[in-house]
Specification:
Largest sheet: 9 strands, mixed
Helix content: 25-40%
Distance between the termini: 44 Å
CATH class of the largest domain: Alpha Beta
Radius of gyration: 19 Å
Strand order of the largest sheet: 14-13-12-11-7-10-9-8-15
Number of strands: 15
Strand content: 25-35%
Structural class: alpha/beta
Shape: globular
Length: 309
């Protein structure tokens, strides 16, 4: 029997990915939505989560797709109501918030699934297995996209807690922390802030593994033309390239996988959420969020030309 699920935050990612995945899910039935500014046809719609929980008490699960600044209050309310919670990335506006949510889920005996959708891309498993058998020698992340295409008219991403270019960039860090056998930390960073915004439009980050291997990362929201979501890792015994945000994989120049974009990621996310709910388990890994927070903590700030949404 499918679990009854509510969706909170009906924005671009909910419309493009969550709702289509739920329409074909064998695990969940979407029964209600909460959003200040949007409604889903054929669904019970409410202006906020509190009203939804009061009016539809038999909801078992809540999937939260709001901007990260609103994640903590919504997730905490759902957890305290005894609901299983799935969180879209980035998981929260601060590292302390996600830690508190993990504690709350544990106290309530419900599931908190703090997701990284890029980890569910088609090429991630084979990339991880290839790296497990080899010594890393170096790496480069190139994560550049057009903010006007992917976040049209969205001011929240430029506000404090909105992450700026790290909203997509954190996907790269979620992939890196998933496939590397060694842990990684931020050594230095340069963050470029538009003079009229509160979040970076570009960033250069030097990461280093505990074993001393350097991984250079470039993030940019000003890319036009082809978009770049690539991770190249050099080992003593060959070279790996993850492309298309984890959908494509090349090993020593040979194409091994070539799934486009987000194909299959969100159905796999919801399948994993269902499994965790059935097990009564949570899955929380905020290492990518810690890396972003550390880049803000120790990065040098560079002011650049204004950006208009």
């Amino acid at each position: 029997m499918r679990r009854k699920l509510a969706l909170v935050g009906i924005g671009k990612i909910a419309l493009d990915q969550h709702i289509p995945a739920l329409e074909t899910s064998p695990h969940f039935e979407l029964v209600a939505c909460a959003s200040r500014n949007a409604k889903v046809a054929g669904m019970a719609n409410f202006p906020d989560l509190e009203t939804l929980l009061a009016r539809v008490p038999d909801v078992e699960c809540v999937s939260i797709c709001t901007p990260p600044q609103a994640h903590f209050d919504a997730a905490r309310a759902a957890l305290r109501a005894g609901k299983h919670v799935m969180l879209e990335k980035p998981p929260a506006a601060s590292t302390r918030q996600i830690a508190l949510l993990a504690d709350e889920a544990d106290r309530r005996g419900v599931t908190l699934f703090q997701t990284w959708h890029s980890r569910f891309a088609a090429a991630v498993d084979p990339a991880r297995e290839w790296l497990r058998e080899r010594a890393l020698a170096g790496g480069r992340i190139t994560w550049k996209e057009d903010v006007h295409h992917w976040h049209p008219g969205q001011q929240w991403i430029w506000e404090p807690g909105g992450f700026g270019v790290f909203d997509p960039g954190i996907n790269a860090l979620s992939l890196l922390t998933e496939v590397l056998a060694d842990e990684v930390f931020v050594e230095s960073a340069v963050l470029e802030f538009p003079e009229n915004q509160q979040a970076p439009i570009a960033a250069s980050v030097r990461l280093r593994t505990e074993g001393g291997v350097l991984v250079e990362a470039e993030f940019d929201f000003r890319q036009t033309g082809p978009q770049s979501w690539d991770i190249e890792l050099q080992a003593a015994e060959g070279r790996l390239k993850l492309s298309q945000g984890g959908g494509g994989l090349e090993l020593d120049g040979r194409v091994v996988a070539a799934d486009p974009g987000l194909a299959g990621e969100y159905p796999r996310l919801y399948a994993r959420f269902a499994s965790l709910c059935a097990e009564g388990a949570s899955e929380v890994d905020w290492r990518p969020l810690q890396l972003v927070a550390d880049a803000f903590l120790i990065g040098r700030r560079r002011i650049v030309a204004p950006h208009h949404v």
